Amino acid sequence: DRQVLSARGVTVRFYTYAGVVHAVTDAYLDVYEGESVALVGETGSGKSVFTKALTGLIDPPGRIESGSVLFRRRDGRVVDLLKLSPEEVREIRGDEISYVFQDPSSALDPLYTAGDHIAETITEHRGVPKGDALREAVSLLRDVMIPNPEVRVKNYPHELSGGMRQRVVIATAIANKPRLLIADEPTTNLDVTVQAQILDLLKDLRSKYGMSLLLITHNLGVVAETADRVYVMYGGRIAETADVYTVFESPAHPYTQLLLRSVPNPLKKIERLESIPGTVPNLIDMKPGCPFAPRCPFAMEVCSREDPPRVDLGGGHVVHCWLHAKR
Ligand code: SF4
Ligand code: MG
């Protein structure tokens, strides 16, 4: 298996009047070809900022302080997305890597039809004339299971339901056959039955288009149903990573264990992560040590003094925690 994307040491800070926000610290992630990877964490864990930073989508007062994001392009060349010029990254974004965000309404311009949105990205990245691009748009709408695509292609966003709007956003995201689709909470604003349909759609599209999927979610049900491998993020850092089975059956990080205990049966029921005692850490002017220490039932003296070590448990299972440190 070959990597499509490999991020290392990504650190993002926001320089605000209240202080320096350590949004993402030394985060890493690999995505292999054809794989579905979930990045899990509570609101404020840094998961959205990390995934935006992968293609340099960080605006002031935010700054990517360090890191590398190697990406294997369609032609086989490997580039560091954090070293390319903004123009070069723009060429890749929306083409070889594309994003689907939480709120479909903000991704769509009310003055443009479904077809306009899709055709625009096709024309921009592949130089296809508008008429041909609109014909492609109809077949893309069919791929995302929108009924009567010939009619819907002429609809404006307000003429579509929330679920259909998200399908249009997904059609736009896959229009250029990306190697990697990054979906940040793509179902959060939709009702439960539509959520399941959108997840099924993403799974189907992944195999049909032969792309990799990076799914950002706070929902363990989504993880259980869609991911091959999982990264758990806490306090702007990766806490643990393993294949999905290991994460649910033998989680090693106290935070992951707590997450799973807060959900009666993550494999059967769609639940949210918000029921853990304590609050998410304040990421302003962070001190060294484990960010989970104030909430951790196993916290030791060393935990609030020194950053937790990276411990390789084998088989791709890695945990960042003093409990597992070899002594
Ligand atoms: Fe808990 Fe310490 Fe492990 Fe952090 S490093 S999760 S505080 S035991
Ligand atoms: Mg988010």
TrEMBL record:
<dbReference type="GO" id="GO:0005524">
    <property type="term" value="F:ATP binding"/>
</dbReference>
<keyword id="KW-0067">ATP-binding</keyword>
<dbReference type="InterPro" id="IPR013563">
    <property type="entry name" value="Oligopep_ABC_C"/>
</dbReference>
<dbReference type="GO" id="GO:0016887">
    <property type="term" value="F:ATP hydrolysis activity"/>
</dbReference>
<dbReference type="Pfam" id="PF08352">
    <property type="entry name" value="oligo_HPY"/>
</dbReference>
<keyword id="KW-0406">Ion transport</keyword>
<dbReference type="InterPro" id="IPR003593">
    <property type="entry name" value="AAA+_ATPase"/>
</dbReference>
<keyword id="KW-1003">Cell membrane</keyword>
<dbReference type="InterPro" id="IPR027417">
    <property type="entry name" value="P-loop_NTPase"/>
</dbReference>
<keyword id="KW-0472">Membrane</keyword>
<dbReference type="GO" id="GO:0015413">
    <property type="term" value="F:ABC-type nickel transporter activity"/>
</dbReference>
<dbReference type="InterPro" id="IPR017871">
    <property type="entry name" value="ABC_transporter-like_CS"/>
</dbReference>
<comment type="subunit">
    <text>The complex is composed of two ATP-binding proteins (NikD and NikE), two transmembrane proteins (NikB and NikC) and a solute-binding protein (NikA).</text>
</comment>
<keyword id="KW-0813">Transport</keyword>
<dbReference type="Pfam" id="PF00005">
    <property type="entry name" value="ABC_tran"/>
</dbReference>
<feature type="domain" description="ABC transporter">
    <location>
        <begin position="7"/>
        <end position="260"/>
    </location>
</feature>
<dbReference type="InterPro" id="IPR050388">
    <property type="entry name" value="ABC_Ni/Peptide_Import"/>
</dbReference>
<keyword id="KW-1278">Translocase</keyword>
<dbReference type="GO" id="GO:0015833">
    <property type="term" value="P:peptide transport"/>
</dbReference>
<protein>
    <recommendedName>
        <fullName>Nickel import system ATP-binding protein NikD</fullName>
        <ecNumber>7.2.2.11</ecNumber>
    </recommendedName>
</protein>
<dbReference type="GO" id="GO:0005886">
    <property type="term" value="C:plasma membrane"/>
</dbReference>
<keyword id="KW-0547">Nucleotide-binding</keyword>
<dbReference type="InterPro" id="IPR003439">
    <property type="entry name" value="ABC_transporter-like_ATP-bd"/>
</dbReference>
